[in-house]
Write a structure and sequence with these properties.
Blueprint lengths: L4 H24 L7 H8 L2 E7 L10 H22 L7 E6 L7 H14 L4 E7 L17 H6 L25 E5 L9 H9 L7 E5 L10 H5 L3 E7 L6 H14 L4 E7 L1 H8 L8 H11 L9
Parallel strand pairs: 1-7, 2-5, 2-6, 3-4, 3-5, 6-7
Helix pairs in contact: 3-4
Length: about 300
Amino acid sequence: MSFNTDSSLGRADRSESYLLSSILFAEYFDDTLKNQAHASKVLDMHSVGVIPKIVFATTKIPFNQITSRLLDLLLQNVELSFKEKKHSGDVKTLLFYSNQDKEGKTVVAGNVALHLRDMGKRVVFINFTSHSPSDNLNRPKMPKASILRKLLGYPDNRIDHSSDFLAAPHTYLSENEYFEIDTADLSRYGSINELVQEKLSNTSLPDYVIVEFPSIIPNQYPTELVSCIDLHVLVCRANRIWTDADRTATEMLAKFTGQPSVFVLNGVELQAIEAIFGELPKKRSKFRKAIKKLVQLQFLSQNQI
């Protein structure tokens, strides 16, 4: 009895070739923001950090360690931005905004607030919203996996919506740290400090005030109130295309406030995170490590001088 090993090997080679061709084809025609370096060029802004796509946890990827370190780097860059602005006030104010809905600004702003609190800072998060607080709890149903959905972006069937990182801020911030205010009440306040003093009454002022507005393209925003905020942080998804409307919106905001925004890239694939961290702390077999070095042409990278 004999086996036609040549034909089976040929089919395997063709399958690998098709897979590689598909990857190269998708990469060539991918106009999304993708990673930190590419997004900085497209947006023409300075990046203060990235947030990874929160996929279902595995024993191979320590997401808590990765996200904690990325938040450390994000806050270091934020502090550097304050130093460059020569900020001298007692209270530092940050605006987190997005051009469109579902960019993840609430998740990013909430975790920044939580990280600051864990560092011993007094934080207040003011979320201006045009919807009811219960809307934050409505999780989207997980779609069936398909190549088309992955190519088009969210929703992604790998996202772990039960992750603590994606929880609503009111579930982990106290009543004195998190406030939701309807945008219809914006006209009542002349400044952020005035609003904070009203909410906190006689208690001491916080070290940081984090403000979130609804997406700025479909919604109006108070330019005078925004102008009083020290640092404007745009949150945008890595798997979205930057359009002329996005560019116009951010340029108009910069003209009204007299200062350019910085940005946080959200939902970045883990492969792109390695450009910041280097090798991620992930368990790989010797075979997978060899394949990765072959793809990246890094066989000599371990040789000492």
